[in-house]
Amino acid sequence: MGQGAGTTVQVSTGLGPDYAVIVEPGALDRLPDLLGEFAPAHKYALISDDTVFGLHGDRVTRLLAGTGLQVEPFTFPAGEASKTRDTWADLTDRMLDACFGRDSVVLALGGGVTGDMAGFVAASYMRGVPVVQIPTSLVAMIDAAVGGKTGVDTPAGKNLVGAFHPPRLVLADPELVTTLPRAERAQGLVEAVKHGAIMDLPYLDDLERSMAVLLEAESEALTRAVVRSVELKASVVSEDEREAGLREILNFGHTLAHAIEAAVSYAVPHGSAVGLGMILEARLGEALGITAPGCSERLRGVVRSLGIPEHLPPGAAPGEIMSYLGADKKTRGGEVRFVLLSELGAIDRADDWSRPVPAAAVEEILTAAVAT
Ligand SMILES: NC(=O)c1ccc[n+]([C@@H]2O[C@H](COP(=O)([O-])OP(=O)(O)OC[C@H]3O[C@@H](n4cnc5c(N)ncnc54)[C@H](O)[C@@H]3O)[C@@H](O)[C@H]2O)c1
Ligand SMILES: [Zn+2]
Predict the structure, then answer these.
(1) In terms of pTM, does the model score above 0.90?
(2) Strand, coil or helix: what is 105?
(3) Which domain holds residue 123?
(4) What's the chain's Rg over C-alpha atoms?
(5) Is 12 in the pocket of ligand 1 (CB under 6 A)?
């Protein structure tokens, strides 16, 4: 795909009208026209964290104001620590003070934190106003902006209070990723690797070959990856309406990742935990004779090329991870359930998309992953 060429992916949702995800380098310049077409409003609330707003906020406000659209920015401190009900309360209070009515639209300009936060503001403000997602991180473009999940963290856990609120439009401009730090790009690419591993071997091959330029945010490779990941995630969330439970395959690597994150009080970035989780869950599948031999080794190579550690983080003891697995939401009837590969590019399906696994097998894999 050449520079400027755009791809539109349609996402179906049982909760509202279908929506388009536009992936196109430079597409941000078309925002005013696209808003007129997909999300006309009296006034736009531009919600962004202070880092992203500092980098891209002026451009967006000038673009909108330049075409006569009314826009007002609402920013909050960058980082997961801001994804709280307090920030939600602050943003909604400020919008009320600024007399935003039911005829307003929320624009979520930022990473996954902003997307989840602004999406939840939109879901609840005056019982719901439309949101347009403008993802600026790779995590947000590849994962968070597609699917309609919004929400905030609470002291009891991440993403525990929220709502499904599908956007009117997702505008993914891969050029915005050039300002994203390289380590953050690697975090997003982990979810792309997951999409390839669970559904599309040729895509995984392409990611493997292009990893160096992807990490450099080379426009063509990045656009290709965002398009493919969006297509794959959109196909899963759209299909899930017909086949309840298909979304579960997106949990590959995540059962162990969530337990590892909890065991170190979220001191390890999510993408790093998922990278390790995918290697370990592939090893688990291999040990159980479900996953074809060699898959975990290949995933290990890809994860290493992203600069992500392949051992358990310091302080994450296998026993403690096991106890967090007991609390994992995928636990049913005292069994630990895992989504396992049959081979790279395909999930093993038994009665369900996940299957129960003996705790001893899991503990063995974890113990072997302790750094020596
Ligand atoms: N709703 C979903 O389905 C879903 C899916 C995956 C992740 N998430 C959520 O997404 C969040 C993680 O997303 P994230 O990694 O994007 O976090 P984030 O929004 O905190 O962004 C990471 C960092 O990068 C900065 N940043 C973002 N875009 C930038 C750019 N273009 N240039 C420079 N800096 C930029 C941000 O300011 C932040 O400091 C988590 O809260 C997670 O729960 C949600
Ligand atoms: Zn994830």
Answers:
(1) yes
(2) strand
(3) 7-180
(4) 20
(5) no
